[in-house]
Amino acid sequence: MTWNPSLRSEKENSMKLDKKEPKRCAIFVFYDKDGIVDKYIPVFLNGIKEVVSRLIIVCNGDVCDRGMEIFKDITDEVCIRPNEGYDITAYKYGLEYISYERLADYDEVLLMNSTMFGPIYPFSEMFEKMDAEDVDFWGMTNFHEVPYDPFGTIEYGYIPRHIQSFFMVFRRSLCESGDFISYWKNLPVINNYNEAVGYFETVFTKKFSDMGYKWTVYAGSDELEGYTYDPLRDYPRYMIENKRCPVMKKRSFFHDYGEALSRSGGEAVKEVFNYLEHCTDYDTDMIWEALLRLYNQADIKKRMQSNYILSSRLPAKSGKMGEMRVALVLHIYFEDLAEYCMEYAKNMPENADIYITVPTKEKLETVKKVFSKLSDRNIDYRIVGNRGRDVAPFLVGCKDIIDRYDLICKVHDKKVYQVIPRSVGSSWAYKCFENTMKNRIFIENVIKTFEENERLGMLAPPVPNHAPYYPTTGKGEWGENFAVTREWADKLGLSVDMDITKEPIAPLGSMFWVRTKALRGLFAHDWEYDEFPKEPIETDATVLHALERLYPFCVQNEGYYSGWLMADTYARIEMTNWKSGIV
After folding, report:
1. Residues 6 or more apart from 546 whose CB is under 8 A from it?
2. Which of 82, 170, 204, 448 is the most exposed place for a label (fewest CB within 10 A)?
3. Max CA separation in the chain (angstroms)
4. Phi, psi torsion values for 146, nearest 5 degrees
5. Which of 308, 299, 250 is nearest to 276 (CA)?
6. In this structure, how many other beta carbons lie within 10 angstroms of the beta carbon of residue 100?
7. Backbone phi and psi for residue 519, each to the nearest 5 degrees, phi listed first
8. How does DSSP classify residue 331?
9. What is the pLDDT of residues 191-247, one digit of tens each?
10. Integer Cα distance of 92 and 160 in angstroms
11. How confident is the model over 448-462, as pLDDT tens digits?
12. CB atoms within 10 A of CB 417
């Protein structure tokens, strides 16, 4: 950050803002693929309004009617333009809307976009500090120098150290200069992301610094040089907690997890989310709302580390359970597994209701005899016929109970015939039961986890990863079932992201815990038995296979997230299996 003394003589002696109330104009660029304005947007804008005298919203693409009402409640100046040229071109549009000649009417002109959550701290804190800085332009954070050009569009052949373009502030000394106006007037047409980065974000700071204009950032990160190129991306908690950075980038919560693992162990996002949730006043539910509506559940789960390893030995700290109404829905087809199922079912809390579905009256007699050992429990037996395996008994045979409970555990007897030796399928059944109903303490901890995490919609055991199942983990969970799942998602009116290259966070063993509100859309279909195939069924691509994968997308569509659930005892096995990778 050098300064040319000859330029200094042509300007004011100091670029500090020593006014009591500087006059500021903010240009906010908004984009949403659906034109929806989530709650975090007006919170951000109302925070900015506390420090600016004029706010202009530039929308790249359409905005829904409700979104426009929200914007109009905040400012009368809302501009709609085609979604072309990325944020940079929208910034230029906003500057031209003010007019280059009138930019100097303001002490500062702000450029910012909708890619961040905030304010975590009042923006006034940042502006009060920056008013004392003797600079021509400044930003919130900076990107460190990278000794090469990964975009192929940067005139310098490398990425210079620069202010990140999601939040930039220009003082009058820069806005009134011919250099600044000429730069924007001659900005080339932006056709793609690489050009957006190479023609503006990575070069603007150096270009104007070389001309003698002074710059700095609010949340400096010199001490992280050599650790990261992008401090807010890689060390968000440090930047927010120690540097008082007032925003968190939205991209961090959904960007491909491989990107994080190329530089770290993947801990950054969960660390910062915990800090935001427990150590600040920022409403993190707004983060969940935006993420679950827009992004793929596999990416969100990985970034948020939605894996719940719960104790089967230590009860929940509060000791006493809350007010959740809980039920077990258990389907039994194989009479010889009734005893096995009963041993897990008895782990349910005494106040939980138990629903047992069976295909025939004959099987019911056997099951009732086994479950007579639980005579002190409230058990409802239902004969449902032999159609739709364990899925139809849940969606059709028990659809009348869904509104009676807050939380349901759905399990079934499991016997795999198509894999030899049969011990392979038996181990899968063991994994499912152990990680849903290990014992009473474990189940109480599951219930407590749902009580403490209001956006948690579904927990299921991880997918099997032993014997022939191992290659299916990661992205193989779709198998031959993506098309039929997509078809049923459309029928159910699901609007969440579904991507064949990204695995569903699905209970492939068809056993899970679910918040009933999270399945409202699924049960609204009012399923009937004739929608399910008769036995024998195909091994893939039926409505049964689709539903097994649709559960978490239905959950997400209702605004909840899904995760993996394991008992502490089984987590030891899982660690060994993942490390071994034996097929």
Report:
1. 481, 484, 485, 487, 488
2. 82
3. 98
4. -120, 125
5. 250
6. 16
7. -115, 15
8. E
9. 999 999 999 999 999 999 999 999 999 999 999 999 999 999 999 999 999 999 999
10. 22
11. 999 999 999 999 999
12. 7
